[in-house]
Amino acid sequence: MLRLAVDGVSGFEVSDAELWRSGPTHTVETLRDLGDELGGGWELVFILGLDVLSKFDEWVDPEGVVELASLLAVSRPGYAAFDWDGFYERCPYAAGRVECIDSTAIDISASELRRRLAEGTPVDGLMPEAVARYIRENGLYGT
């Protein structure tokens, strides 16, 4: 679905590396593998929501994550103000490695999208049409 979502968008590449691992996978391991696969000359950027960034210090080896990739935190409309001072107190190693952008997207979470799909509520305009079609055609999320 991610491939469908970014098809035709320059600068994005989707990796299926985690699909081929057995057992639990952690972001730091995936980034390490991607860095090894790509070799030098690339900068990895890990995109995550501010809601996820707020618990970044609870991840497996968060310091390793920011050594391997910069973080691009996306704030969606309606999200409460982020406690940057508290974040950098807990994650001083992330200084200079995090950029935040405000999303112009619609204020909706993935959980809400899945709920709407399961209920049969239309999701027109809330995700790329190719992704919505794939979900319907494959009966995902109770569709």
From TrEMBL:
Gene Ontology molecular-function annotations: ATP binding; nucleotidyltransferase activity
Keyword check for Nucleotide-binding: yes
Pathway named in the protein's UniProt entry: Cofactor biosynthesis; NAD(+) biosynthesis
The protein, known as: Probable nicotinate-nucleotide adenylyltransferase
Gene Ontology biological process terms, A to Z: NAD+ biosynthetic process
Keyword terms: ATP-binding, NAD, Nucleotide-binding, Nucleotidyltransferase, Pyridine nucleotide biosynthesis, Transferase
InterPro entries reported in the protein's UniProt record: NadD/NMNAT, Rossmann-like_a/b/a_fold
Coiled-coil regions listed in the entry: none
Keyword Kinase: no
Residue intervals passing through the bilayer: none
